[in-house]
Structures are given as C-alpha cells and as structure tokens.
Amino acid sequence: MTNRDATFGVYVHWPFCAQKCPYCDFNSHVRFKGWDEARFLAAYKREIDWVAEQIGPRTVTSIFFGGGTPSLMQAGTVAAIIEHIEKRWGIAPQAEITLEANPGSVEAARFRGFRDAGVNRVSIGVQSLRDHELRKLGRIHSVDEAKAALEIARSTFERFSFDLIYARPGQTVEDWRAELGEALDLAGDHLSLYQLTIEPDTPYAALHAQGKLIIPDDHDASVLYEITEEMTGKRGLAAYEVSNYARPGSESRHNLLYWRYGEYAGVGPGAHGRIRIGDGRTATVAERNPEGWAALVEDAGHGFTEMTKLSRAEQADEMLLMGLRLSEGIDLDQLAELGGARPSAGAVAELERLGLLQSAPQPSVSTGDWRKNELNDIALCAGPGLGPEKIVLGPDRIRVTPAGRLVLNAVVAKLSKSFQPAERMDKLRTAV
C-alpha cells in the first residue's frame, strides 16, 4: 500500500457540524433543523457512480470520512456508502477505513455501529486537554468527554488517533510540555499535533486583525515545535509528516496516499480529488454548499464545479509540495517521470547550505536530541510496515530538515522556480 501507482483512495466529505469553530476554514455547516440524510446518501452514491464511470476499474486501498463531523452520520449511512464503494470498485482486504469524530458525538453504541459498518480506524478531534482552552477554541465538549471518547475508541477499534492544537494564545513552554505529556499517556500509536494558524475569513482572523487575538511569534512557535519533536520521539512516535506522529506501521495510509501524490476520488460537498482520466490527471472540486451540491448531483450526476486537467508542470509542483511534507522526502526520479522536471542542483545546494534541505541522509543512532532524532531509522521508515532499507538514499532523494519544515512553503517555492526539464538535467549529470 506504499506504491503511489498501486493505491486508490476515496475521500467522503460530510459537511455538517453541531457548531462552527472560530478557527476553522473547512467546509462545515450548521443546520439547527437537521438535514435530509436519505437525500445526501442518494447523492453520495450517484456521485460515486459518475466517478466510477469516468475512471474505470480500481481497487480501493483506503477510505476517509472527513468533515465537518462525520460521527454525526447514522451508522447505516456510513455502511451504505462503504457498500456502494465496494460495489463500484472493490475494496482491498487490508484497506484502511477512517472516520473523523468529535468527542461530543461519541457514544459506545454509535462507535460499535461504525465498526460494524466497516470502519476500522477513528480520528478524534480533541484539540486540547484544558477545559478553558476548549472554550476559547469554540469546542462544545469537555476534557472528561474527550478522555471518555478515547477510551471508547481504544476498546472498539484496533487503531485510533486524536488531534491537538498547540501554539495557542498565551501558551507557554511549561504549559505545552505538561499538556503534551498527558496526551502521550492517552495516545495509541498515532497523534496529530497542529500549530494554530490564522485562516482567512474566520472569526479568529477578524480578532487577529484587530489585535484581540495574539498567537506565539515564529520564534516561540518553533520552540514549541522542537518540544513536540523531542517528546514524541522519546515515546517512540516518529514525525513521519510535518504534523503527524506514529509508531512504525501505524501511519495514516490514506493521508500517505495524498502526500505521495497518489490517486483519490473526492465525493461530497466541497471535496477535492485527483483522478486519472485517460492518460492524464484531473483535479476535481465540488460545490461547497451542501444543498447546492445535492441539487447538482441530482441534475447532472455529480456536484463538481471544477474539473481541471493538470499539466505536467502543475503535477510536479503539487508532488513537490505534498512530498516534502514527509520525513521520507521525495524521489526526484519519480518527480521527473511525473512532471518532466527537476529542481536545479544549485537550488538544492543553496537550501542545503542554509540547513533547510537534505539529500542522501545517513541514518544515525538516536540520542534523544530532537534534531538528531530526525535521522534515525524510525524517521527514515518508508511507510506502513516498511523499514528504512526500502528507501534508496542518494542524490536523487531530498527532504526538508526540521528547520526547513518551519518554512516549507518558501523551500517549495525556491525549488519550483528552479525547475529545469528532466532531459536537460540528465544530460548534465551524464556529462559530469
């Protein structure tokens, strides 16, 4: 399930939430009078049918129910969607099927229903282990409810994960060390730890613009990031991606598919997809308004408002942006094969001199130091169940350093601007 060309995922977007959080820019909507779940189920099935007709046979290796709050769905709805995906494409025996949940919507019976529907992994949006911070984040659950949800998940599913947000307003080093330590005591084999970012057009963005919401500056945020790397590493959770930490073999396979630039269908309101139609890759974007999306599907068979055939250059940019999020980095030969281009040797060398990029990293023994820990065998793991020997270390593989992760967009922009046709680069290397 680690081969980019042998994986196929389905992302199902459930757009409804009990309440909109002030920091969130995801496509989520509140409907106090409820929603017509039967109508949406029919629309999901019809859009799946339409995509299947465009791309033909596939074997699904992962399914991800995201949102919104998918745990607000009825278990029967989840089961029907999974059954329809199986009908149209077939699902691999060891496929990962994840459902996102918020603690306030978690009940033991509901989780058993999702498990019986086919879900084998849950991701819970805890966000903080401090009640006063949860209130600031607009969350409607308590810490006790979050801990109870985690225990239900632990007893119901073989795999579970939860999210925390750090670098919050006023958060100190001591605060984060204490909270993260508690989180690690509660964790299974996977944690997602996100720095708070101010997203445009959110209530937090308005407060930030008015000076009423102050988050840690870049220096303070980087210190919190270093603490995160240090503490997770000591507990055996490797940073396999910028914000995701797992024991070897417990990485999110569906998210790895995104970051390795695999193929996935996005269905549901506001969902994005990257599908292969014919000999090219097409980017799809669906209508964001839930009822508007359903109406489009009922009329045309799908709710996509954008379907863009990507050029090789666009694919190279996307693969670079996604792949450099991973600790394993990116294979430049694969990049050249897909996009027909390579970053210049000069740009790579300059970023290496700045300490932002590595090529041909060599494993070293872990010393507990967060920077050296980045080079140990766990961090070099190629993916679920694969050891570091599966990665070909050489001048054709690059990855960002921990310092580079903090300025990832700038690193990607530098490399992208230096792109040269792969044929020209191959000639230059042969000449040398």
Characterise the protein shown here.
- By secondary structure, the chain is α/β, with parallel strands linked by helices.
- The protein has 2 domains: 4-258, TIM Barrel; 315-431, no CATH class.
- Helices cover 41% and strands 22% of the residues.
- A 9-stranded mixed beta sheet has the order 9-10-8-7-6-5-4-1-11, with helices on both faces.
- A hairpin with a 2-residue loop joins strand 12 and strand 13 (280-286).
- The radius of gyration is 22 Å and the shape is globular.
- Residues 362-393 and 427-432 have low confidence and may be disordered.
Distance between the termini: 37 Å
What is the 3D shape? Answer: globular
Percentage of residues in helical conformation: 40-55%
Oligomeric state of this protein: single chain
Class from helix and strand fractions: alpha/beta
Furnish the topology, listing elements before pairings.
Layout: E1 8-14, E2 16-17, E3 29-30, H1 37-55, E4 60-67, H2 75-88, E5 91-101, H3 108-117, E6 121-127, H4 131-136, H5 143-156, E7 159-166, H6 173-186, E8 190-195, H7 203-209, H8 218-234, E9 238-241, E10 244-246, H9 253-259, E11 263-267, E12 272-277, E13 280-286, H10 290-300, E14 304-309, H11 312-323, E15 330-331, H12 332-339, E16 341-342, H13 345-353, E17 357-359, H14 370-373, E18 397-400, H15 402-405, H16 408-417, E19 420-421, H17 422-431
Parallel strand pairs: 1-4, 1-11, 2-3, 4-5, 5-6, 6-7, 7-8
Antiparallel strand pairs: 8-10, 9-10, 12-13, 13-14, 15-18, 16-19, 17-18
Helix pairs in contact: 1-2, 2-3, 3-5, 6-8, 11-12, 11-16
